[in-house]
TrEMBL record:
Signal peptide range: 1-22
Pfam families noted in UniProt: Lactamase_B
Domain of life: Bacteria
Residues annotated as domain Metallo-beta-lactamase: 45-217
Protein's recorded name: Metallo-beta-lactamase domain-containing protein
Gene3D superfamilies, per the entry: Ribonuclease Z/Hydroxyacylglutathione hydrolase-like (3.60.15.10)
Organism field: uncultured Thermomicrobiales bacterium
Keywords tagged on the record: Signal
Entry annotated with the keyword Membrane: no
Amino acid sequence: MKRILPLLFVLLLAAVPAIGAAAQDAPADELREVAEDTYAFVSGGYVSFFVVTDAGVIATDPSSQNGPERAEAYAAAIASVTEQPVRYLIYSHEHADHAIGGNVFAETATFVSHRNAVQPIADLEEPRAPVPTISFSDEMAIELGGTTVELYYAGRNHSDSSIVLLHPAQGVAFAVDFIPVDSLPFQNLPDAYPEEWIESLRWVDRNLDFDRLVIGHPPVVGSKENVAEVRAYLEDLSTAVRAAQAAGAADNSPEMVDTVRAELTADYGEWTNFDEWLPLNIEGLLAARAAEDAAAVATPTA
């Protein structure tokens, strides 16, 4: 395989302007080798993961919703370490900010996702987001050039289509948005299933063996310990919200937020976005519970 030192690629991209208003203060693009033949490409606040083999590349989320530039830079990053084409592009989940941009690999790649992501990606009607032609329900393996990666569905969490990519030979997992590292889950938990999220994390912790965790947004690399930490946060958030309700605090009121904040600050107050997103996490948790209650009323058991 033709290789060019990834640091050279980082230096070359240092002069490239950040893409999109949200990325104006983002650091320069970075290509990081997290294990042998296993890379993370960081750009515009997003992380894409890829594995190089002798028969081609297994890549993930292009994460280029704001324009074609990030996907093009991602393709250039891959080309900086191998002449092999991208043979598989795996969507971590259906959300457009991660899914759009894969058209730069469309001439050589087969697109893969969980089955629940196929129709939502098709519904985007976005030429830059090719619709997956291979999908799975619970798990599948992709073998390429003597390398195997495994894909697992752990249940509903940040979405109903999020998967974990496991590279067992290197002890590395890639999971996007449902296992943040030292950070609160995103804002008001849009499109999420908080109670099932907890069980999803429990399943990952019990069933998948890895040491390093690559996630969809910086910081790039965490560990399996982050799985249990996020689960503990969601459990503690749920418990604290119920306790605030039992004490008479109105949903989403300043009293509820202050009560929950006081309960969680000792363990999670140093996490990124704790101050800004805790009220939104509470809002999202309550909205999800209300939606579940409404669904239960609409479909009573026999």
